[in-house]
Amino acid sequence: MKKLLERTVDRNEELQMIYLDANGHCTHREVTVFAVSETTVVGFCHYRGQPRIFRRGNILSVFPVKRRETVWKG
Fold first, then answer.
1. How far is it, in rounded angstroms, from Cα 51 to Cα 66?
2. Where do the structural domains in the chain lie, given as residue ranges?
3. Torsion from C-alpha of 11, 16, 20, 21, nearest 10 degrees
4. Distances (CA, A) of 42 to 56, 68, 74
5. What is the CA radius of gyration of the chain?
6. What are phi and psi of 2, to 5 degrees?
7. How high is the pLDDT of residue 3?
8. Pick the CATH number of 2-64 from 2.60.120.260, 3.30.450.20, 2.60.40.1120, 2.30.30.100
9. Which pLDDT score, from 0 to 100, does residue 60 have?
10. Rounded distance, CA 21 to CA 48, Å?
11. Confidence (pLDDT) at 39
């Protein structure tokens, strides 16, 4: 998980995150990561529409965002 987080910072890519919020609920987020430390991940949360700080201990899973390209045939 650490390498994927660091790679998204270097490449300015979005990732999907399964995160345990402050109320103990599992949430699905799309995040553009700005910085990674041993305890936190700082990024723009597209779900909330604002910069957020995520506790690394609450991140359950991360994976790249897969976008489908739409091909118009006209």
1. 22
2. 2-64
3. 80
4. 10, 26, 43
5. 13
6. -60, -45
7. 83
8. 2.30.30.100
9. 95
10. 12
11. 95
Is pTM beyond 0.85? Reply is: no
Supply 26's token pair: 């599992």
pLDDT averaged per 10 residues, the chain (length 74): 84 91 92 94 93 95 78 67
Give the separation between CA 50 and CA 73, rounded to whole angstroms. Answer: 36
Amino acid (1-letter code) at residue 35: A
CA–CA gap between residue 36 and residue 38 (Å, rounded): 7
CB 35 within 8 A of CB 44: no
Question: Would you state the structure tokens that stand for residue 9, as one six-digit string?
Answer: 């910072």
In the numeric block, which tokens belong to residue 65? 């965002």
pLDDT value at residue 1: 80
Local structure of residue 21 (DSSP, 8 states): -
* Amino acid at position 10, single letter: D
